[in-house]
């Protein structure tokens, strides 16, 4: 890959967790009912995302790794309407492949044969028939092997894996109807069953003590709906990464939403303690911008005050009723 291409890649691929995020989004977009993530060490040596989604034919697979190809936007109206699928930039596979050695095996649902495509440092190395189950597996090895500057920014193995764990956790919580699992160095970290209930997903991811402390949120006003689960004020952690917020199905980190949740506890939390929350906020798509930056998961609301109020009141009444 050329220099420009590799720099551009750094915008999308900041660290191993960004690769995992893009690949898991692709699997969910592909209608998977099962998504399995496996990571070695800090994720740079090897990580793998497997799904049982719609899969790709040989020609779809060749197209998928080309620059700026997406099967997900048909025209500019789609873009303006706020795209329903998670990915739409059409550059994830291409850019991940530019900074790693990537192997994709895929077989379309009901298709007769599978294909393996090997991609290294931005170029297709080989395409061959492969025996594989329906769906897709993407293996990314030697991430950043050709971008030493990017590699230097990586933190310890524990920190990089934490980021990966956070990403996979968010998708597991947001998609309780999909069985999502995470493995680290051949050890299972968590696995959800994909049977549809948010409570079951929380139980699989956070364990029984947390799951039993959760109470249901079901609120909203003025076109904003707020739904999900929050913990009682005693079940907290010292970091805020367990306070998960989603806007129109998409995981976001939003000070507005976070403060609204904390406000709802109205001084019941011990200093520097954060509750568990898995909150889904739905707003009309035209009133929100969730693509402020491709890799930061930020969000901007037209009516920030309205959203803030709806979330605070929704969580407040859940806590009062519990
Ligand atoms: P985008 O997701 O923005 O379209 P990507 O580079 O992430 O761009 O993927 C390119 C294309 O490859 C997708 O539009 C999709 O058609 C196909 N694709 C990628 N991952 C998968 C997958 N896991 N299953 C089926 N198709 C996939
Ligand atoms: Mg994508």
TrEMBL record:
Keyword DNA damage, does the record have it?
Answer: yes
Q: Which GO terms describe its cellular component?
A: mismatch repair complex
- Record's keyword terms, sorted: DNA damage, DNA repair
Which GO terms fall under molecular function for this chain's record?
Answer: ATP binding; ATP hydrolysis activity; ATP-dependent DNA damage sensor activity; mismatched DNA binding
Spell out the protein name for this chain. Answer: DNA mismatch repair protein MutL
DNA mismatch repair protein S5 domain residues: 202-320
Q: Which family does it belong to?
A: Belongs to the DNA mismatch repair MutL/HexB family.
Q: Which residues of the full protein are shown?
A: 23 to 344 of 772
- Its gene? mutL
Its function, per the record, reads: This protein is involved in the repair of mismatches in DNA. It is required for dam-dependent methyl-directed DNA mismatch repair. May act as a 'molecular matchmaker', a protein that promotes the formation of a stable complex between two or more DNA-binding proteins in an ATP-dependent manner without itself being part of a final effector complex.
A GO biological-process term: mismatch repair
